[in-house]
Amino acid sequence: MIAAVCSVALQFPSRMVDPAISAAPTDADVLAHGREILRAEGNAILQAAESMGDSFGHAVRLIEGCTGSVVVTGIGKAGLVARKISATLASTGTPSHFLHPAEAMHGDLGTLRRDDVVLALSQSGETEEITRLLPHVKARGIRIIALTGSPQSTLGCAAHVVVPTGAVQEACVLGLAPSTSTSLLLALGDALALVTSGVRQFTHEEFAARHPGGSLGRQLLHVDDVMRPLAQCRTARVADTVRDVFSRPLPARRTGAVMILDEAGGLAGIFTDSDLARLFERRIDAALDEPIGRVMTASPTTIRSGTHLRDAVALIETRRLSELPVIYETGSVAGLLDIVDLVGMLPPETLEILFDPSTAATA
For residue 89, how many C-alpha atoms fall within 13 Å in the half-sphere facing its CB? Predict the structure, then answer.
C-alpha cells in the first residue's frame, strides 16, 4: 500500500503538494481551489465552442432526421452524463432513451431499431463496454454519433459523425477523476439537444405537454387550466346588499373574493374579504345593508382567458393581488384565479404580503 501511494506521488509530484489539499487548508485555500476547478471546466467548454466544426452540424441534422429514437450510451461517469443527455433530448422534442452498454450484451440490444441513431460517449474512445457494443450496432445498420476526445479511436473510426471533445486535463487534483471531460460531454450533449430542438421549432406548448408536473409545468399552463370556473365562484349583482351576499352558502372551494356581474354577464367589480374586514375595522356597519355596487372595486385588474399562467403569476406578484378575475375575449367572466391555488409558484416573501389583509391590494 505504501509503495502504491509513493508511486502516485512520484507520478504527480506537483499536484500532491497542492496547497488546496494540504493538511490544514485555510478557507481562502478552499475557495481558491473551488474557483480553479470551475475555471478549468469552464475554459474547456469555451475552447470547445471556439473549435467546434462542421461535424456538430452534421450530428444535429442526423438527430433531426431520426425517425426512431436517439439511443444514448456510455458507462461509468460518461454513462451518468448519457442518461442526462437522453432526458434532455426527450423533454425537448427528440424521442430518446438510454442504453447501458453492458446490459445491451445481455438482451437489451433488442431495444435497438434500424431507424434509431446511437449517440455514444467515451472520452478515450476505447472504453471496453462501448467498443464491444459497436459491431452489433453497425450490423443493424444503425448510424452512430460519437462524442469522444479521440477521432482516431475505435469509437471514432466506427462512427458516422464524430463531435470531438479534444484532449482535456481533468480538474481533479490527481488528474484522474472524470471532471473536465464529463462537463464537456454534458455541455456538448446539451448543445446537440437544444440546437436540434430549435431547428424543429419546438414550442412552449409542446414543452408544457412534456412537463405537466411541478412548478415549471404549472407555469407553462394557461390560466384556464388552473382558474376556478365561474360556476364555482362567489358572484353577486350590483344591487345585492353586502349582507345578503355574505349570508349565502359558500361554494365547495372557498374564494377570497366576490365577483359582481352586470346585467350582460360582464364584470362590474370585485369585493374581497379584505374589503369586508376594512368595513368592520372602520365601523361602517350601515354599508352592510347597502348595494355591494357602492363599496366594490369597479373595473378591477383582470387577465384574458388563454394567457399563460406564468404571466398571470407575474401580474399577481407585481400588483400584490390575492384574486385575479379571468375574462373571455367577449367580455364575459370565465372564472377566478385565487392566490391559494398558486402557492408554490410565488416567492415566500410575496405570499407573506398577500396573506396579510392589511397590505394586500383589492384589484
Answer: 27
